[in-house]
Amino acid sequence: MVRFALRRLLVLVVALFTVSVVTFLVPYASGGDPVRTILRSRVAGQALDPSAVEALRHDLGLDQPLILQYLDWLGRALHGDFGLSFTSRTPVDQLLGSALGVSFTLTAVALGAAFVAALPLGTLAALRPGKRADTAVTFLTQSFVAVPEYWLAPILVLVFSQHLGWLPSAGWRTPQYLVLPALTLALRPLAYFTQVTRAAMVDVLKAPYITAARARGLSQPQTLLRHALRNGLLPVMTLFSLWFAGLLGGSVVVEVIFAVPGMGQLVYRAVVNHDIPIIQAGILSIVALAVLVTTVTDVLYALINPAVRLHDGSV
Amino acid sequence: MHLRPRTSASTGKEPDPATGAHLSISDLRVEFADHAPAGGTPPVDGLDLTVRSGRIVALVGESGSGKSLTAHAVTGLLPAGAHITAGRITLDDEDLAGCSAGRMNHIRGNQVAMLFQQPKASLDPTATVRSQVVEPLWLRHGLSRRQARARAEELLHDVGIADPDRVADSYAHQLSGGMAQRVMIASALAGDPGLLIADEPTTALDVTVQAQILALLRRKQRERGLSVLLITHDLGIVASLADRVAVMYAGHIVEESTTQELFTDPQHPYTRALLRASLLRSEDGRLFAIEGSTAQSRGLDHGCRFRPRCPVAEELGISHACEDTEPTLHTCGADHSSRCWASPSPDRMVSA
Questions:
Q1: Would you call B122 and A304 a contact, using CB atoms and an 8 Å cutoff?
Q2: What is the pLDDT of residues A198-244, one digit of tens each?
Q3: CA distance A213 to chain B (A)
Q4: Is there a contact between A216 and B169 if contact means CB atoms under 8 Å apart?
Q5: Model confidence pTM above 0.90
Q6: Which CATH architecture has domain B21-264?
Q7: Beta carbons of B228 and B114 less than 8 angstroms apart
Q8: Whole-angstrom Cα distance, residue B336 to residue B332?
Q9: Interface confidence (ipTM) of the complex
Q10: pLDDT digit string (tens) for B128-163?
Q11: Class of domain A98-271
């Protein structure tokens, strides 16, 4: 098991190195000259002084060969120093630290809630396929998939903030501020988790080891808890880690609507402003966190299902 | 089915103290609720069977004869959609067919245990062997954690596992099929049941392992005085293990006798065909087959269910009787009953 975890860690390091190269290069490939963008924002409308352009280019280190820029960037990134934002001149690691914390919290709460709700819903549907509970759950989850976030979010604000006054409509201060954005984000993953749980449980409940467990005298609830659920949640765990990676930097719409200072907003604005240090560090940290979550999931998966620990004779 | 000749199995009678009926099934019918077209025969229809205390009864027949459904009906673990629609299943003087779900949970594991065809697939891949062997123990006795752990290893040792502590901490994928079936036997016996239902317990195992598992079953049966209902299609296993044999065809029993008697003097044409198909080879070395398939016997609402495949009916010129009226399972010799118009009967002889 330890060897399995170590192997996964090695894969993680290789993945991060590859990603660092790609994220470093991507902003350069996207076109546009960051130096001119920055200067234009300062002198609004006037012609640019060519010597000022070159001076700033030198200051930002953008006149160096790309490979040197990369090595320099990587060396400092390894110490957590991602340089200064081109536009606001604040250290990138500070901007990133707070945004990453916000996004991680929001994603973890939304997906955690979706996971916890999906297991009983999917199991309920799987117990009697095609019967009333199954139809109801399927209908519910399919409508969740169809609801767009930019429609749901204002509705939730209207109901829970405007009419009922229970929850704040926007911002990020106390845990109450988390509820509406997390709810908005959770709905679609909840639908997918439920469907995958249902499909997995339908298969698991037909497995000989379920009948064998009943034959040993376990009641149906005991069998579900002790044997069916553990096997049924394995595919949902995989889906969980995929969604985690996606939502970390991909919840721009929800972040904008609820004024959540997360990664989606930060990176989106950086792209618009050609703020290369933020883009590079942002993407790298999103990917790093995503790969880390995937690795943790893989290790958990192997802990639950020992048959996964391939090439590893010892338990 | 009034005026049925008394079968030697004496279904539904009070258990005789000496050789009392441990399990007695009478006129059992199992049907699938969802797809029951009018006129379709239920997969188990009018089945009578008795397992006396401490005896091994083999239930034999080809695939689709309803053997496994019968076994699952006894344990109350019929697949989704299948239901018992008629008949009685009496275990230790209690009718199981009308039992509550809670009562059945108590009976399973404690009074009746089961072995399955695929031992490895019958173990939860995410749980250790120990946790699964222990389950009937904590359900029944409320043993402490440590006591249950120790008892599990004892049980594993008793089924011939040399290193029970290592096996107890293993998972299904680390075991061979034979080892997994030993584990299943240990967990089946953990709740100290009186009746063991073994549904093709060695079919998925290779031949040498088969012999070991059968020997183990025989030893456990003797040690504990278990009653065993052995479901199999392998007459070799029947010959080596069973005290009595019931031959099942198209949902009911067509012949029932002691193993010795059945092998030396089979009465029903289906039994004879089955024996010939599994034990003999023709002169050119080819295996004998039974003409036709069980599908031909589905949907027959009158007459003998084996009639479409029967070589005897035509030969003896009794096909009229066979087509009109279903023969009853009647006594055709000492401790021997058959469901065929051509079998000898004390109260009627067939003119042939």
A1: no
A2: 999 999 999 999 999 999 999 999 999 999 999 999 999 989 998 99
A3: 8
A4: no
A5: no
A6: 3-Layer(aba) Sandwich (3.40)
A7: no
A8: 6
A9: 0.85
A10: 999 999 888 877 667 788 888 888 999 999 999 999
A11: mainly alpha
